[in-house]
Q: What sequence folds into this?
């Protein structure tokens, strides 16, 4: 029976004589190593195996010594793409964290100043509404300004929230008489009692209560204007008004 041998792995094959014509001169794949080789005849000595690492004449490259493939070993030392990406992300996050913290430390004071400025504007507007309501009250009461803020609220010209400064945490009442609450809890002090529409414009009509306000207060004058008076000048003005000095002498100083 004709016999052939795989030149790569030395696997023998027995081919019956009646099947030899259909295999002779054909190129088949070894069932062991899956390498192709030519079926040559007549039967002769098997061809010499290829030298390790050298190409087989007319065929595929030979196997390296010691087996069908090089032995497995760990990949070369180094940093994989995933680790590099993770490291880059970590560095970027750290930079953003540091820069973001510095940015926040810069922005917070700026935002606080902007909020305080907006609250001052709204507080000044509250005083203007109080002054306008007092003037309308005077038009109906022989030019005399009201004696207190209760009379201003009862005139119906303003709402109760006008007596709450946005610079404080004062809450308007949910029950009871709003006029009584205004006299006791308003954020603005009324000093217009006894004045009338002919009062000179440098007289003070009302001002923000200075409790808890660190930079100064808004002040309403008899001519309807509202001005910002910074500390410590505002402290001197309040002290003079409580002593009955209106207009306050300290406001006349430069």
A:
């Amino acid at each position: 029976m004709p016999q052939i041998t795989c030149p790569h792995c030395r696997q023998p094959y027995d081919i019956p004589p009646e099947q030899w014509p259909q295999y002779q001169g054909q190129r088949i794949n070894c069932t062991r190593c899956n390498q192709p080789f030519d079926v040559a005849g007549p039967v002769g000595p098997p061809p010499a195996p290829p030298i390790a690492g050298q190409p087989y004449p007319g065929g595929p490259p030979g196997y390296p010594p010691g087996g069908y493939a090089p032995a497995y070993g760990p990949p070369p030392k180094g940093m994989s793409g995933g680790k590099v990406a993770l490291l880059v992300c970590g560095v970027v996050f750290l930079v953003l964290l540091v820069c973001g913290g510095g940015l926040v430390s810069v922005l917070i004071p700026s935002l606080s100043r902007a909020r305080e400025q907006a609250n001052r504007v709204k507080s000044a507007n509250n005083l203007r509404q109080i002054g306008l309501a007092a003037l309308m009250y005077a038009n109906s009461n022989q030019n005399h300004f009201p004696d207190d803020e209760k009379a201003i609220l009862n005139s119906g010209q303003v709402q109760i929230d006008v007596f709450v400064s946005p610079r404080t945490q004062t809450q308007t009442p949910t029950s009871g008489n709003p006029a009584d609450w205004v006299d006791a809890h308003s954020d603005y002090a009324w000093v217009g009692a006894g004045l009338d529409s002919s009062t000179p414009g440098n007289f003070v009509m009302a001002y923000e209560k200075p409790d808890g306000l660190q930079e100064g207060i808004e002040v309403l004058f008899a001519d309807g204007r509202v001005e910002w008076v910074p500390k410590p000048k505002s402290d001197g003005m309040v002290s003079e008004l409580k002593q009955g000095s209106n207009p306050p002498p300290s406001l006349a100083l430069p």
Observations:
- Residues 9-68 form one domain.
- The beta strands are 3-5, 12-14, 27-29, 36-38, 188-190, 204-208, 216-221, 226-230.
- The chain has six helices and eight strands.
- Residues 81-139 form the longest helix (59 residues).
